[in-house]
Amino acid sequence: MARKVLVLPGDYIGPEIMEEAVKVLRAVDRRFALGIELEHGLLGGAAIDACGVPLPDETLAQAREADAILLGAVGGPKWDGVERHLRPERGLLAIRSELQLFGNLRPAILYPQLADASSLKPELVAGLDLLIVRELTGGIYFGEPRGIRTLENGEREGYNTYKYSESEIRRIGHLAFSLARKRDRRVCSVDKSNVLEATVLWREVMEEVARDYPDVELSHIYVDNAAMQLVMRPKQFDVMVTGNMFGDILSDAAAMLTGSIGMLPSASLDKDGRGMYEPCHGSAPDIAGQGKANPLATILSVAMMLRYTLGSAEAADTIEQAVSDVLDQGLRTPDIHSEGTRLVGTAEMGDAVLAA
Ligand code: NAI
Ligand code: MG
């Protein structure tokens, strides 16, 4: 059965890292006879330049057809001047919500070879393997009404709306619990139910979902304490489930525990397990065009795509093992480079993974 993968390279370093990831994807496709068909499309600034909008209808149609989407990164200073609703990042928000990619999986895994790159002491992060499950299509990033208005007294007021429906909470809860079953069977739900009513409901619904998973342990934590615990004792967590905004912030914090954002993949899944896969980092305009970008986050996103959507755990394992082997060989792009290791560029790193 042919499986369609839509490749959206995006902007700045996007196309550079994507080239390496596509090399690796083609190689595992051949080796494991996966029958993957690749198609390329435009999103973000690249789409603005070609068609005037960040998410062209054609891209959306391609995305709906595809089983999985592999995305580089979008945005950058070139499009700073365009109107807010046409900005590259809007294309990303739109594709996530159009496809109802509500389940954002952000693993934070510390590779033992990179223990010295973490901002924390090695003993605090050695063996770290946590998964943040972030709700991606609801909450305050999408809530209406929103905007900036002028009050009667002439003062301006900015406002957004934090809301989650029961069904939105339930589906992200089920995703988190079912993933926990394949791991250490612990889910920690993050809320702010001491202050925000919307998250009182969040906590209640998580308790209800937990009844379907008697073998998985559920705990709750307030988001401020979660931030503290993440930098104090990160290894206490297995799966953390939370809303859009809290998840955005906590997953970036968790990312840095592992050393470099250049190492971290992510998945965004819909209810049927179709999904979009992308590195956690942005388009890194500061290093674009210099062959310095670390392609491993995107290559590891390919592995997640094989595991979660394309159903080939064997191919996923092979890629993850190859990445580990390359780190063992001492190869490092500038973002993870330290004394005694070998500095390489984007393409050389991609080729090394391919060889491994
Ligand atoms: P960024 O993640 O692009 O860069 C932050 C820092 O990390 C920079 O110093 C960059 O050089 C470095 N970095 C990022 N990826 C790297 C890699 N693969 N290898 C080595 N170093 C890497 O975040 P920033 O600078 O805040 O945003 C730049 C642009 O990217 C903005 O337009 C932003 O809106 C966009 N962005 C897009 C995202 C996406 O497409 N999903 C996510 C985050 C930001
Ligand atoms: Mg973010």
Q: What does the model show?
A:
This protein has 2 domains: 1-109 and 267-356, 3-Layer(aba) Sandwich (Isopropylmalate Dehydrogenase); 129-257, Isopropylmalate Dehydrogenase, CATH 3.40.718. Helix 1 crosses helix 10 (296-308), helix 8 (223-232) runs parallel beside helix 9 and helix 10 (296-308) packs antiparallel against helix 11 (313-328). It has 356 residues and is an alpha/beta fold. The protein has helices at 13-32, 45-51, 57-65, 88-98, 122-125, 166-181, 197-210, 223-232, 244-257, 296-308, 313-328, 346-355; strands at 3-10, 36-40, 68-73, 103-109, 129-135, 147-150, 156-159, 186-191, 217-222, 239-242, 265-269, 275-279, 331-332, 342-343. The chain is globular and about 60 Å long. The mean pLDDT is 95. It is built from 12 helices and 14 strands. Strand 11 (265-269) and strand 12 form a beta hairpin. Helix content is 40%, strand content 20%. Strands 2-1-3-12-11-4-5-10-8-9 form a 10-stranded mixed beta sheet, sandwiched between helices. A two-stranded antiparallel ribbon has the order 6-7. It has a two-stranded parallel ribbon with strand order 13-14.
